Amino acid sequence: MNIHEYQGKEILKRYGVRIQEGIVAESPDKAVEAAKQIMAQTNSKFVVVKSQIHAGGRGKGKVQGSEQRGVALAKSVEDVRQISENLIGKVLVTHQTGPEGKKVNKVLVAQDVFYPGESEPKEMYLGILLDRSKACNVIMASTEGGMDIEEVAEKTPEKIVKEWIDPAVGLQAFQARKIAFGLGLQGEAFKEMVKFVTSLYKAYVDTDASMFEINPVLKTSDNKILAVDAKVNLDDNALYRHPDLANLRDITEEDPLEVEASSNDLNYVKLDGNVGCMVNGAGLAMATMDIIKLSGGEPANFLDVGGGANAKTVEAGFRIILKDPNVKAILINIFGGIVRCDRVATGVVEAYKAIGDIPVPIIVRLQGTNAAEGAKIIDESGLKVQSAVELKEAAEKVRAVVANL
Ligand code: GDP
Ligand code: MN
C-alpha cells in the first residue's frame, strides 16, 4: 500500500527523523491559512506548495493544460492561493503517473527549507528497501539527490552507495556511519546523518514497510539533515498488525477496478492487453497469461478467483473484467481440484445470464474433477461460450479469436 508524502512524513516524525514541516490542505482557503501559520512559525515569507498524489516526479510534472508544476515555491500568501487553485481538483501528469495523470485532492503547504546561510543547501538521496535476492534490507544513498535520481542510477551507478542489512541482526552503528561517510559529510552534518539513518531504519522495520525513499534528504545551509520528501510503501500482508497505518489508505488513488476486486476478495491486477482472463490459483493465472501471449494476444489483467470459485465469485470476476473497455475476449481457465468443474460451469452460465449479453467471445477451459460434466453444461447452455478441455485447445481458440480482432 502506498501512502501520501504528508503521511509518510508524519510517521518519520514519530520516529525522530527531522522533516520539512508542513500542513496538509484540501482547499485554497485552507492552504492560505496553513501558509500563514507556517510563515509565522518559520519567520519566512516563503513556503512550498506540494501536490499530494501517489506518484513521484511532481517537481517536474505539470498540471494538464497548464504550466503549473506539481511542487512550487510560493513567495507570498497570494502565490499560495494561486498555486493551490492551479493544483487542487486538477490532473497532474508526471513521468510516474502515465499520460492520464492523477487528480490532486490535497496539497501540502511546507516550510521553505532551501534558505540561504553559511553553506549551500545540498540535496541527497536515501532509500531503504527489501533486496529479495540477498534476503536483506538494503540502504541506498547518493550525494546526487533531487529530481534526477533515475538518471544517476542509470548513467553513474558508482555514485550510489549501498549497505545491506541482515534483518535478523539489524542496522549496526558502523553501517550508519558508513552511509554518512559515503555521503561525504563531516562534523555536525555527519552526526545528524547517522541519527537520521538510524531512525529511518527503525521506522522502516517497525511499520513493516517494503520501501522508504527520501529524495531529497537535505543538508540545510546550517548543517541540519532533514527529509524533504517521503515515498513510503507498506507491506499489505502486514497491515493487519497496524490498524492505524491501514487507516492511511486512500482508495481514490487506486485503480477503481482493483478496489472493487479486493472488496470481493479477488486478486486482480489490471494490465494493458486485450484478452481478459479468470483463473483459479496464482501460478495457473501466470501460466494462462503466458498462453495468451503465445497465442498472439496480450493479457488485459491478472485475476485469481481463489480456490472456492462459485457463481458469485465468477460473476464478480466477469463484471470486473468487462468494465475494462480494452477487453475483446475472455479466457476462463479453471482447474477443478478443490472445486468441481460442473459447479464452476454452472457458475459461469449463471453469471453470464445474470450479466446479460456479454459482447465478447468467451473460452472456458475446465480441467480436473468432473471436467466432462462441466464441458457438457457449457456446450448445452446455448450461450456464446466455447469450451475446451486441453490447454492447447483453449490456446488455439484464443488464437482464432485474437486473429479476428
Ligand atoms: P517529487 O518531484 O515528487 O519527488 O517532489 P519533492 O518533494 O522531491 O520536491 C521536488 C523538488 O522541489 C525538490 O527536489 C526540491 O528541489 C524542490 N523543493 C522541495 N522543497 C523545497 C523548499 O522548501 N524550497 C525550495 N526552494 N525548493 C523545494
Ligand atoms: Mn522527491
UniProtKB/TrEMBL annotation:
Amino acids binding Mg(2+): N215, D229
Reactions it catalyzes: succinate + ATP + CoA = succinyl-CoA + ADP + phosphate; GTP + succinate + CoA = succinyl-CoA + GDP + phosphate
EC number(s) reported in the record: 6.2.1.5
Keyword vocabulary terms for this entry: ATP-binding, Ligase, Magnesium, Metal-binding, Nucleotide-binding, Tricarboxylic acid cycle
Binding sites annotated in the UniProt record for ATP: K50, G57, R58, G59, V113, E123
Recorded superkingdom: Bacteria
Record-given protein name: Succinate--CoA ligase [ADP-forming] subunit beta
Annotated source species: Rudanella paleaurantiibacter
Gene that encodes the chain: sucC
